[in-house]
Amino acid sequence: SAPAVSNFIRSIIDEDLASGKHQGIVTRFPPEPNGYLHVGHAKSICLNFGLADDYQGKCNLRMDDTNPEKESDEYVQAIQEGVEWLGFKWDGQVRFASDYFDALFGYAVELIEAGKAFVDDLSAEEMRAYRGGLTEPGRESPYRSRTVEENLDLFMRMRDGEFADGSKTLRLKIDMASPNINLRDPVIYRIRRAHHHRTGDKWCIYPMYDYTHCISDAIEGITHSLCTLEFEDHRPLYDWVLDNISIGCHPRQYEFSRLELMYALTSKRKLNQLVIDGVVSGWDDPRMPTIAGMRRRGMSPAGIRLFAQRIGVSRSENVVDMSVLEGAVRDALEGEAPRVMAVVNPLKVTLSNYDDALTASRSAPFHPQHPEFGERDVPLSREIWIERDDFAEVPPPKWQRLTAGGEVRLRYSYVIRCDEVVKDEAGEVVELKCSIDHDTLGKNPEGRKVKGVIHWVGAAHAVEAEVRWYDRLFTEARPDAVRGEDGEYVDFRTFLSDHSLKTITAFVEPVVRDAAPETRYQFERVGYFVTDRHEHVAGGRPVFNRTVGLKDSWAK
Ligand code: ATP
Ligand code: MG
Ligand code: MG
């Protein structure tokens, strides 16, 4: 793979290794299993696992599963599959924050015993009122002065299920006057009778994210805890917790900017809405910017990794055009995908002097630069299909494709001349009658230049394939950032495109019929396509998804 590009996180790691602060690095990727991973997560995966690979360290995959109502095993499975498919490995087992529930409980007891945590009876609404605002300090809860004994007793009884959901919380005693609202006695446990996908009904109290995350990092011996910039204000809390419990490890948190991709959404909650609404066929619909969707669309792991490398890692805003993703995907597929011919908008051509006895078929390489991809026959027949766009009755200037009376080369085959244009009653061209110059197979015609080369498929051998032609899902570049006249965000679903999926029938070379699901091809001169992961069956009627065109069609 390409050499790593440096960034501020690599500089920090280089210093930490040079100074002897660390002997090696340990990172983690900590998704919450409340949805499928998206392209933003891909950035974080490539960063965390990529660093571990490059520095011979390790990266843990940890499910941050502290919100039982929204989490499930389906999501856990999908996350693992996504990381593996991108080409990364975690050592041994997948970790779960829920593995640490006992330890987290123990540290909470420690904090209570040290007088640094208390059980609060304020309701959520009251707590909000006490919290204060950006310019106004908060007020201390009237329950803050409970004794250690009382707090210990109440916390045990919270765990034992004596109190109703939401009636009590455990809070840290930090500073209600702190300018950082995260430090205003944050809640670290709440009561919630919810079935957990791993711990079942063992717990009715669950730890909060900020409290769980830093301790999980410390338990795993993480050296560099990398997260997105919205957690910058949480860093003082991350450090406060680790400074106030008896744990022998204090990972450092560093923040980088979140990826946002234009014409896409990078929020599991919003993507889930599209799934729930049935706007897409599921989390892995090829229009979804999920890892599963990009996979089904035909993007390759190398293409997505190349994209992550190109967008880089920094602390400045990271809103990226879709053309950057597509460019990286295209550049990777260029050398990965075998090439075949397919006609997506067919026009019939009859070769009037076609002769079975002549060389009717020629072997063609699957990739001009990769002989190891092998070759296949491209059989000619009396009738062939060409692309409607490759014929013009009234050609524009510099036209090099076919026109009435003109000549063109059929890729890997003969030069043909258009002798007659057949039209229907409406004046629409329905067929071309052409003749072969038999003396042009693998050599130039005598005495004249034929510049144009077009792709084609022999009608007698062509396979009819279903092609799903995908386009952008939204008509707005930032569908979730548009504000209405009232200043409120407009529902992003308002901007769903009507043209994001068109299904067409194409004629493709017969060789694709036997392709396994998820085989990627370049259809020469058309674009990149993949056999559908679920609906294509080798030997049946092929089903292709259009991955991306050959040129950037997004740039304005
Ligand atoms: P979402 O809002 O989609 O649920 P999240 O940040 O809550 O996203 P997590 O499952 O908590 O999702 O994320 C796991 C990791 O991936 C975190 O370290 C998070 O910072 C990172 N991550 C999530 N979204 C992005 C993004 N758009 N760009 C870069 N990193 C991201
Ligand atoms: Mg999260
Ligand atoms: Mg989230």
Q: Which range best describes the helical content: under 10%, 10-25%, 25-40%, 40-55%, 55-70% or over 70%?
A: 10-25%
In the sheet with the most strands, the strands line up as 12-25-26-27-23-24-13
Q: What summary fits the major beta sheet?
A: 7 strands, mixed
Number of domains: 3
**Gross geometry:** elongated
Radius of gyration (Å) = 31 Å
- What is the fold-level CATH name, i.e. the topology of the largest domain? Ribosomal Protein L25, Chain P
What is the residue-averaged pLDDT?
A: 96
Beta-strand fraction estimate: 15-25%
Please, what is the oligomeric state?
Answer: single chain
What is the CATH first-level class name of the largest domain? Mainly Beta
From the structure above, extract its key features:
12 helices; binds adenosine-5'-triphosphate; Ribosomal Protein L25, Chain P; 7-stranded mixed β-sheet; 24% helix; binds magnesium ion; 556 residues; alpha/beta; 27 strands; Glutamyl-tRNA Synthetase, domain 3
